[in-house]
Records
---
Amino acid sequence: MRDRIFSGTVCGMGTEEPQGLRERKKVATREALAAAALRLAEQHGVAGVRVDDIADAAGVSPRTYNNYFSSREQAIVAALAAERSLRIGAALRARPDGEPLSVAVVEAVVSQYDDGPGADALGLLADAPALHAEYLESISALEAPLAAAVAERGRTLDDETVAVLAAAVAAAARSAAGRWLTGIRAGMAPDPSGLVAVTTPASLADAIRASLTVLSPALAALDRAG
Amino acid sequence: MRDRIFSGTVCGMGTEEPQGLRERKKVATREALAAAALRLAEQHGVAGVRVDDIADAAGVSPRTYNNYFSSREQAIVAALAAERSLRIGAALRARPDGEPLSVAVVEAVVSQYDDGPGADALGLLADAPALHAEYLESISALEAPLAAAVAERGRTLDDETVAVLAAAVAAAARSAAGRWLTGIRAGMAPDPSGLVAVTTPASLADAIRASLTVLSPALAALDRAG
DNA sequence: ACACGAAACTGCGTGCACGCAAATATGCGT
DNA sequence: ACGCATATTTGCGTGCACGCAGTTTCGTGT
């Protein structure tokens, strides 16, 4: 019990029952901590959130808080993003059998971000660089579960290829999200330096979809080879 | 003077003269800190290195040490890897004009890793997960300078495409390096679980080159479009 | 119901990252 | 050489991440 506890790691968040009282309490504790962190951030700004207060609000010790999150930004992002990266496996498994990887992967990834951060969340992300970074890191977390799901689906692909593909896709998505957030922030407060790109996709999902088109040739090559 | 001080950021490490006494002292301090960190790690193991001792050995205050590095792993990796990620710009600019991106990018990236970590470094990396992670992070640092260099070279490419490409290449290289290190470590101490891939490329450069072939179709598509 | 083992929580101590402000060193103009 | 501005270093205080070990809670078998 010393790795950060992901609520979705074991129980699959919605498709399987938690395994017992211990597991149910872990899920509840994690969600309580994340919800408390977000609420406190909305009240005091991210910089004003103390880990002691998060722990108090969730009814656990600060040391227990640390068992779940290693920073307040992680806790806040857990509330904002609800570990959607960890659901990529299920999303890809839900794609139609026989669908080309170049379509299945893109659709599965993009579908995780159909509902991007709301106005309150965008406000928080704009005000706290560390929170922005953690949010992008949460997108990078697509990598491992995506690799596992692709390996399952594309059984003729070697492990190296799968791993590289997953790393590239996760990085593209993270990179696009970063630019999207920057563009949104510029929309909220015009950037005096004038360096921000003129066109920001309407949604996070669109931004991620556009980024994955750059990788389409590589994905398509795997379809032909597989 | 509150961002981490990179020795290569301004002076280009070898092609331009440092700008003055201030800059020369900053370079010297950073190098002294990195060298001290590595020496102490070799003597005491990574876990036995204290930031106070690094600072003492380099003749600065702990607070100053923190101006350069935010962790001892960063300091050690700085000594091991010598900021080679930051040299990708120069490497790409040195590629022949007119060479396809699919070749220039691969060759420039791979050339940074022609001499990978030596036996001592591999021993340190094997013993300290946080050091291993920081080493991989240093490879991820390829992203921004690579994007800048590609933008310069492929002037017909839009910014989004450049950024996605750079993110994907850096992630592929990082991912490959991680597997390479894991394979090397397995070679040093057979993995009882038997899960480690049977074939490890002979060198880090080979591993990175192989990973970039997965992205070749995407790079090649840009060549045709550009 | 009870005993035991494993998992999770907790308190404590320690090392450390970083904001803040004062002190020091360098660069520049006269 | 001197004065001033700027960059860098330093000391200090504070919040916090985490190893360690003891306590509590849950799960399982009898």
Note: Confidence is low (pLDDT under 50) at residues 7-16, 189-198 of chain A.
---
Amino acid sequence: MTASIKEVAQRAGVSLGTVSNVLNRPDAVAPQTRQRVLDAIRELGYVRNDSARQLRAGRSRTVAIVVLDVSNPFFTDVVRGAEAVVEAAGGMLVVCSSGEDPARERHHLDLLEEQRVRGLLITPVGDDHHRRLERLVARGIPVVLVDRGSGQSNRCSVAVDDRLGGRLAAEHLAAAGHRRIGFVGGPLAIPQVADRHAGASEALAAHGDGVELRMFETRSLTVAAGREAAERVCALPAKQRPTALFCANDLLALGALQGLTVGGLRVPQDIALVGYDDIEFAGAAAVPLTSVRQPREQLGRTAAQMLLEEAENDGDHGHRHVVFQPQLVVRQSTSGVGRPQTT
Amino acid sequence: MTASIKEVAQRAGVSLGTVSNVLNRPDAVAPQTRQRVLDAIRELGYVRNDSARQLRAGRSRTVAIVVLDVSNPFFTDVVRGAEAVVEAAGGMLVVCSSGEDPARERHHLDLLEEQRVRGLLITPVGDDHHRRLERLVARGIPVVLVDRGSGQSNRCSVAVDDRLGGRLAAEHLAAAGHRRIGFVGGPLAIPQVADRHAGASEALAAHGDGVELRMFETRSLTVAAGREAAERVCALPAKQRPTALFCANDLLALGALQGLTVGGLRVPQDIALVGYDDIEFAGAAAVPLTSVRQPREQLGRTAAQMLLEEAENDGDHGHRHVVFQPQLVVRQSTSGVGRPQTT
DNA sequence: CCATTGGCTTGTATCGTTTCAGCAACCGGG
DNA sequence: CCCGGTTGCTGAAACGATACAAGCCAATGG
């Protein structure tokens, strides 16, 4: 059914090794022999068997990236960045989504380990993954943490300063005079969420005089969760209700925007809204969203580069921790007045 | 470095085959032997080598899906549907993005063929892929066309009726009294685009009396391309300018919305806008978008089911062609009056 | 004219699994 | 006491590719 190198050899009247040479070191084969082999390959429709290659070589050319949610445009942009780098290097990037579920994450890691992937980019779900990743590294599979700083010095990481991002958002709101601010996000086990919250908290504490940060925890970082959180906000009596919401990502913010509108609250007149990530859709929302921008594609590119670099110099390799700075993009959802902007 | 089955066998004091049995047919091994083997596995941190497994088995457990654009929420939803089915069956789904580029598509297919994937879900870029896919099928790799009907009877397909979708959109606009309608989409080599256009064209022709459908071709189906098309529209003198735009997908429509706003045209008062796909962000846009809804996740689920089914019954298998019906969802971008809706 | 070189090619071992025929020990029935 | 049937395990043969030592032959140099 599927021709192997042996049949190609037979047909071309050469030995196994020669065919292999044609494939891998064409210059080491005499031109006319090479041509005969190439003809045979074409005639039989021969295609290399990667399993065999990998088995022999002991390593694969595929790199995996495990993200929290493929449907989140933030991650698809990260993936695109990583993809570009990996493909340029002749590899293949496989994308797995943990869906914020530690069990699925583990399952994916199991499979990827069995496949002996060349390296792993991961945005881990919780905090209990250290031993697991440790083991991969010990096995010679380099790991780069994405969108997550690492205290660990035995692996690289690429992150954006989430505390700073949280501070930027909170300071912006506090400066606009908000005193009751709500934080929408969760699960708190996700470090990015915790850090953004911590940053906001920090900034408000520094601000002094009873600025309050109230937590509206969500079960996931999705539009639906944002809508649901907004319902809780709307249900509060006006006196207790926050006058501004800081959402842990833009999906939540977009959901919250919908939920608030349904609940009869106007953004930003009745309640201001800040998102996080500045995904492409944030600026195009019903009320264009103020958001904390992250260098999404660059995150992916840098992570992939570091990974490939580590994969080359098998073994010794100075682990680096790159931290990018987020940037506040102010739009209508916090600006009180003004006309729609579309950047 | 990485333990193999042989070392496990040695440590447990049994033969190779026994370890393999513990892994694959645990009941065929005496409980205490089994335990010894399991202990050895744990102590050595043994992990199966999938390459070797695949090589021996001649087939892999991974299924691939090749989509036009991972950043398009339509496709991420399709992917999620497919993923759910494949994972439930114990497999793994690898996602590749062709970026609407035939060369990249070919490259991915090459790699996937080398990997001897179990099956392939694909939304092909152009129309010249038949021979290519044919070859995969001949090799025993089942192929299911996604979001694309197939005249071919030797493979399955799952699609949504794009001509009908185009008709729905165009009829809606014509019924609202629009006489100069613009179609924004491209490249036309993408069958979905061509079909949606054809459907619209058809509906308007049936409508008679000089209703005009003018083409604004784009280079891709992205937000940026939509913005750029809107600039072209804005540049036209008011008399020639369409009073409505039908965009081949929601990304284009969202981009167009931004471009039109920047160009000083109001949606829907000055120009109406219809998108396609009804992605989650369509309803949350600055002006909630009227759009043609497709059953996105179901598309993926059905495709994956058909693929797995075909992969089971190696060989004979009745190829099916499932066609879903799209559905027009009317929102503010074509409704002239009314208040924001958020569903 | 022999030795040496260098260009091409061959054959074989190897990677880590799974599979399968075969062997040893044991059991109960005739 | 032997025989057929289990049960539990072993050992070797694949799977398809790559690497590498070794061989062959013609050409080159002394």
Note: Chain A touches chain B through 54 residues (CB under 8 Å).
